Amino acid sequence: MLGFVRRRVRDWIRRRQGPDAGPVTLRRGRIYILPTGLGVAFGVMLFAMLMGSLNYANNLGLALTFLLASLGLVAMHACHRNLETLIAREAGSDPPFAGDDAVFRLSLANPAGLPRRDLEASAQAAAGPAVTVDAAGEATVRLTVPTRRRGWVTLDRLEIATRFPYGLFRAWAVLHPGLRCLVYPKPAADAPPPPLAPGEAGGGTARRGEDDFAGLKDYHPGDPPRHIAWKAYARAGELLVKEFSGAAEPLPVFDLADAPGADLEARLSVLARWVVDAHARGETFGLRLPGAEIPPQPGEAQRRRCLAALATFEAPARGHD
What we know:
Structural class: alpha+beta
Shape: elongated
Oligomer: single chain
Radius of gyration: 30 Å
Number of domains: 3
Number of strands: 19
Number of helices: 6
């Protein structure tokens, strides 16, 4: 019954607010507040004090009861105000590998002249640590969501809440930002090495071989680290790269058809391992999937491009006879 009520309330909030695109300002009308367990106990205690003071005509007890009730009302307004006018916006996410946690970052900006304390963000079963946003400042909260397989992970609903100042009330605002994070396939732990000439069959781009030393040239981003002339750098302080002459050799293009595995996911994991290892060695590499090919390139951008293609790849549907 409780779960049914929660679902109905969530559906009502979603219909009332709609999706949240871009930065969201927490206006008064979208902030909800209810007493916590401690707040309920505090209210029961105040009621008992009121009944006792009235029964015994204890003016001092009545004064204390009204003083504590006033404190509770001030705490309620302070708790609600602790969220009001905050500006929430997406702060990006880093693509994880399947099985690791996806980390969503949310930026909270405080345009007011007072600090906002003990702000918490939560979504699904994930909750980030409480943060404090200084006056006219900004802070970032992190939400971690477990992942199981490659593809897109969507964070469709999250809450920003606070129990400041005394924990008697909990104020919260619901956001529907539709945050997305791409999850890469997990690299295979026991993947075999790629074929000796994976790009040869597809006519991969050729580069110079390494038969004979031909001279030095200026370093450019993307040049293999193993070709850097470290002795020349130590003598002159200039970063140079060795050039070699000789037979041309094809640049590696990792092909799904060359990856072993019992099913598609296992083969994609092997390709992910080849991509990660090639990037770690500073090599130039490409990727070939049915219906798509990424030309050989070096660098971190190429690594991300290839892993993203593996994460979003769907096997072509087979035709029926």
